[in-house]
Design brief:
alpha/beta, Rossmann fold, nine-stranded mixed beta sheet, two-stranded antiparallel ribbon, 6 helices, binds adenosine monophosphate, electron transfer activity, ATP binding, Rossmann-like_a/b/a_fold
Length: about 250
């Protein structure tokens, strides 16, 4: 079975995000970029399935600017077999990404798409669900455990208040949550090997998809600075402040 793993290039999770001076977006110039952490978990899960013999080939795909090649090389160094870059200067919205992925699914015919539950830049948490909807495939979102047998993926999902286990008839979409696994670090020999693995570049038009944005960002702003607290000397002082200043009692 072939696995398709979409990986997004995002601002590294250790970087303190800064808003551009003109409020038009988030500063990315000179900022460290990395693979979206949930996508690393998805790549790791795909590699483990291949190591167990449940998958035969892993295709990583990234949609974005030329530098997404670095993200794809990371996926290849972790164990993906080949990569596809859908090159665009736009920052495609989830529906456009889902349409591009659907076109790639039609071309590649994977048995499963394993992806992140959300990209940590825009926090959309939408692409996997939209892709499942477009394809009419089963979906196991927020996966913390995946088991495969006889054309069925048994997925444990992290839902509010507990865990839910669903059985998906393949082909299916799986979106990875934090506790699914701990991604490996690529070893130096694997990083070297990854340089020679195939990386194909195509345009959204080659897949027949228009990625023109449908949303306009009006303004991006920092969250308001939190007021610092005060220490009170006694319960009486606390009650007085709650009554006179906070006016909550
Ligand atoms: P989102 O719905 O934007 O939060 O993203 C959910 C998942 O969709 C991510 O974790 C990725 O696996 C995938 N994805 C979203 N945007 C892209 C992109 N530009 N390139 C590759 N994969 C993407």
């Amino acid at each position: 079975m072939k696995l398709l793993v979409p990986v997004k290039r995002v601002v590294d999770y250790n970087v303190k995000v800064r808003v551009k001076a003109d409020g038009s977006g988030v500063e990315t110039a000179g900022v460290k970029m990395s693979m979206n952490p949930f996508d690393e978990i998805a790549v790791e899960e795909a590699v483990r399935l291949k190591e167990k013999g449940a998958a035969t080939e892993i295709v990583a795909v990234s949609i974005g600017v030329q530098q997404c090649q670095e993200t794809l090389r990371t996926a290849l160094a972790m164990g993906a077999d080949r990569a596809v870059l859908v090159l665009t200067e736009e920052s495609p919205e989830p529906l456009a990404v889902a349409k591009l992925l659907r076109a790639l699914v039609d071309r590649e015919q994977p048995g499963m798409v394993i992806m992140g539950k959300q990209a940590i830049d825009d926090d959309m948490n939408a692409t996997g669900q939209m892709l499942a909807g477009l394809l009419g495939w089963a979906q196991g979102t927020f996966a913390s455990k995946v088991e495969l047998s006889d054309g069925v993926a048994t997925v444990t999902r992290e839902v509010d208040g507990g865990l839910e286990t669903v059985a998906l008839t393949l082909p299916a979409i799986i979106t990875a949550d934090l506790r699914l696994n701990e991604p490996r670090y690529a070893s130096l020999p694997n990083i070297m090997k990854a340089r020679k693995k195939p990386l194909e570049t195509i345009a959204p038009g080659d897949l027949g998809v228009d990625v023109t944005p449908r949303l306009t960002t009006l303004r991006v702003a920092e969250p308001p600075v939190r007021q610092s607290g005060v220490k009170v000397g006694s319960v009486a002082e606390l009650v007085a402040k709650l009554r006179a200043e906070a006016k909550v009692i």
